[in-house]
Each structure stands twice: as structure tokens, then as C-alpha cells.
Amino acid sequence: MSASTLRQAAVPFIRSKLFVPGSRPELFGKALQSDADAISIDLEDAVQETQKGQAREAVRAFLASPDFSGNGKTVIVRVNGLDTPHFENDVDACLYPGTGIINVPKLESAEDVRRAAAVLARVEKKRGIDSPVRILANIESPKGLRLAAEIAAADERIIGLQLGFADLLEPLGIDRANEKAIQTIQLMVRLSAGEAGVAAYDAAYGDIRNADGFRSEALAAMSLGFAGKTCIHPSQIAAANEVFQPSDKQIADALQVTAAWRQAQLHGVGAIAVNGKMIDAPFAMRAQAIVDMAQRLGRISAASGT
């Protein structure tokens, strides 16, 4: 597959990504039965150092099983960082046909991305995997945040940027509850992802008892153009799925705009008014993106958006 073809490949729909500790294989199947769009089996922070090898082999057994079924979900594995002794072994353990995405933590440069991609390529060649596995790049350090656009554009495998607040904020003493700081960082990551033409995914929200707080942060991320949010507990899935999709009104408005824009283009008109609002190319593009999302969700038929 060429680089340009890989970049244009369909992006999985990930409104909600449910974390599952790699050391808890009894939860893997349960996670696949949840309503999350993706599951993310974690070999990094959720697994103690003494359990890394055991967790790695549990993930290998799960993904390598001839009976493995992703149940229609995107399967992500978060491996340990490039500079740990676990990275290459983790990749070897989790690269099987059922794996959709490798989540690489603590990336800080384009060179880091290229190093990770080279390891993936070697394992794919060994396994005979024809379709390159994508990379979800974690942004969770000051340097990574500063170079996020370079990281996002470093390799065609990059499918998106994943924001991580714990590693980014805690060492600096920045309060996780500081909404201005959170939204500033979210915007920086979203713009970096946008420059590279990839998605941005919001961070985990640790207080699982605070449903309102999770929803509020998800809404803020959605308003900045994020595609989805990490869930660390099944109770957060429904809110993420609801927030990161267009409302009925947004879909109806988008259908009006796209229909009017098609007619305008037939007549060579570059700007039109729809329901009292001026519409030109950027607004028409956004409306079409909403229609496309609604179609992927089955909220409208393909014929509705033509």
C-alpha cells in the first residue's frame, strides 16, 4: 500500500475508547460486548512492572487466537514507550490481523514516530500482515505538545493524536481541574492534528463518580473538533457516544446546507444564504462532514446526503 493510499484509508469511528488493563484478560471479552466503539488493551500504565511479561502473553493469546473476533469494534493496544525495554516485545505480542491500532505513549518527536513505525514494519513482514497497522500517537509531555504537529505528520501510519493529561500536567503542578488550561491544551492538540489531517482524541477523565464532569469535558472537546474520548469505566461510554455525534438539528441543518450548496455550485455561485446565514466553502465542507458522519452512524441513508 502506498503512503498516499494509507493516509486516505477510512478512519475508524471512535467516539468512545474503553481502556482494559492487559493484566485482566477476563475483562477482554466483556469489553468487546460493551457499547464502546473501540477497546484499548493497556500494557503500559495499568500494568505493574512485575506483571508486564504476563500481561503481554495474555494479550498475545487473545489476539492470536483463531477464534478471535473483534465484535465489530476497533481493537487498540497501548504498548509501553519506545525507550522502555518492553516496546519491541509488546509490538511483537500484539501485531495480529485483528489489531487495528497501536497506541504509542510519550512520543516527543517525528523521529520517535519513525522509530516506532520501523518496528511495526519488521513485525508485519514477519507475520505476513499486508495492511499496515495504524499508530495513535500520545501527546503527554511539554516537548510532545510543542512538536505535536510534526509528530502528527511524521508518518502515514499516524491515525490521530491522543491527549494524555496525567503525564503532561502532574509533573508541572498544573491543576487537572483548571478548565482554561485544559481547553488551551485541547485546542493546541486539535490544531496540530488538523494541520496533519488526522483526528484528535480527548484524554481520560479520572473521577468516574463525576458523570457531569466527564460530560462537560467531553462537550468542550467536541466543540473543539475532537473525534472522541477515552473511557476508563463502562459507565462513561454512553455519554461519550452521545456527545461525539451530531444532533438531529445539526443533521437537518447540514442536509439543508449541502443541498443548497450543490445547487449554488451548479450555477457558479461562491456564497449563499441558508436560513439567514451566509455559507461559503468552509461551512459547506463542515456540513458535508456532518452528513458523512450521520451516514456512517446509520442516522440517515446514503441517498439523503447526495
Word description of this protein:
The protein is an alpha/beta fold and 306 residues long. It has 2 domains: 3-243, Phosphoenolpyruvate-binding domains (TIM Barrel), CATH 3.20.20.60; 248-305, no CATH class. Helices cover 45% and strands 15% of the residues. The strands form 2 sheets. Strands 1-2-3-4-5-6-7-8 form an 8-stranded parallel barrel, surrounded by 4 helices. Strand 1, helix 2 and strand 2 form a beta-alpha-beta unit. Helix 3 packs parallel to helix 4 and helix 12 (248-266) crosses helix 13 (281-296). The model is unreliable at 1-9 (pLDDT under 50).
In short, what is this structure?
With 306 residues, the protein is of the alpha/beta class.
Secondary-structure map with pairings?
Layout: H1 3-8, E1 16-21, H2 28-32, E2 38-42, H3 52-64, E3 74-78, H4 87-94, E4 101-104, H5 110-127, E5 134-139, H6 142-146, H7 148-152, E6 158-163, H8 165-169, H9 179-196, E7 199-202, H10 211-223, E8 228-231, H11 237-243, H12 248-266, E9 272-274, E10 277-279, H13 281-296
Parallel strand pairs: 1-2, 1-8, 2-3, 3-4, 4-5, 5-6, 6-7, 7-8
Antiparallel strand pairs: 9-10
Helix pairs in contact: 3-4, 12-13
